[in-house]
Design a protein that fits this description.
elongated; about 60% helix; about 200 residues; 3-stranded antiparallel sheet
C-alpha cells in the first residue's frame, strides 16, 4: 500500500523559529528547521499560472473514462433525436411547399382523369381499369401530402412566429455534439498523489 507524505509548518516552542514537520501515515519522519529547508517557490518568481500548478501538483495521473454499450446508445439516441428535429425544422418550409405542390398537381391529374371518363367514348375494360388505378393512386398521394401538411403546420407556424428558434436549436445541437464527444473522450485526473497498490 502506498504512503502519503504530509507537510505542515509549526513553531519550535523553545526557539520560536519556524520548522517543517513531515509525517508519513501519522508517523514523524523528520524535522527540518527553517534554515535547512530549501527555498520555497513563491507566485512572484513563477512565470505563469501553469508553472505554479506544475510546481504544486507535479505531473498528474489520469485515467480514461469508459462507457458501456448501453450508455453509448442512450447518449447517441438523445443526440440523434435533437439532430433529427433540427433537420426537420430546417427543411419544414420546403417540405410544406412541396406537399402543397403535390396537392395541386394531383388535383389537376384528377380533373384530367374525370374529364377523360366523362368525355371520352368507352374503349375497353383494360383502359377503364387503368383510369381507375391512376385516379386511386392520385387521390392517395394527394391525401398523404395533405395529412402531412396538417401535422407540419403547427410547427411551421411556431417557427414563423419565432424566427430565432431554429438558430438557437442548431446551437443546442452543436453544443450537444461537443458534450457527446467530451463524454466519449473524458479523462479523470487524480486529485491526490497517493499510489494505490
Amino acid at each position: 500500500m502506498g504512503r502519503v507524505t504530509h507537510s505542515r509548518r509549526t513553531q519550535n516552542p523553545k526557539t520560536g523559529s519556524d520548522i517543517r514537520v513531515k509525517t508519513n501515515d501519522s508517523v514523524l519522519n523528520s524535522i527540518v528547521t527553517k534554515e535547512e529547508q530549501p527555498q520555497q517557490t513563491t507566485i512572484n518568481n513563477i512565470e505563469s499560472l501553469d508553472d505554479y500548478k506544475e510546481e504544486i501538483i507535479g505531473s498528474a495521473r489520469t485515467i480514461e473514462h469508459t462507457t458501456n454499450e448501453e450508455e453509448e446508445k442512450v447518449i447517441e439516441s438523445i443526440y440523434s433525436t435533437i439532430a433529427n428535429f433540427v433537420g426537420l425544422c430546417h427543411r419544414i418550409s420546403s417540405t410544406y411547399n412541396n406537399n402543397n405542390l403535390t396537392v395541386q398537381t394531383q388535383d389537376l391529374l384528377t380533373s384530367d382523369l374525370l374529364h377523360e371518363i366523362e368525355l371520352e367514348a368507352p374503349k375497353d375494360l383494360g383502359r377503364a381499369y387503368k383510369c381507375y388505378a391512376k385516379l386511386r393512386q392520385s387521390r392517395r398521394l394527394r391525401r398523404r401530402a395533405k395529412n402531412e401538411n396538417k401535422m407540419l403546420y403547427p410547427l411551421l407556424d411556431f417557427i414563423k412566429q419565432n424566427p430565432n428558434f431554429v438558430n438557437e436549436l442548431t446551437k443546442i445541437k452543436d453544443r450537444c455534439a461537443g458534450i457527446q464527444y467530451d463524454i466519449a473522450h473524458s479523462v479523470y485526473t487524480f486529485k491526490s498523489n497517493e499510489d494505490i497498490e
